[in-house]
Amino acid sequence: MEVPDCLYSEKGLMFLGDIIRESKKLHPSTERCIRLDVARILVVVNLEKPLPSKIDLSDEQETLISVSYLCLPSRCQTCQA
């Protein structure tokens, strides 16, 4: 995620993760603010539902945060489980 400075804190990042589904923890490099251009959050998701590619924060500046997903488990092409 490319995150605005005002949300680049544990509380702010967990808030963003909870918008996607259920935040569990921050990646160690995100916790230590090693890469400020990217925030990594472990989020539990339901693979049977679509995953958002953006988070739209309704504020005066209309902030859109792009989201990408790493390490998603593969699904069976036959049964979709």
Automatic annotation (TrEMBL):
InterPro entries on file: At4g02000-like
Superkingdom of source: Eukaryota
Protein's name according to its UniProt entry: Uncharacterized protein
Organism for this UniProt entry: Arabis nemorensis
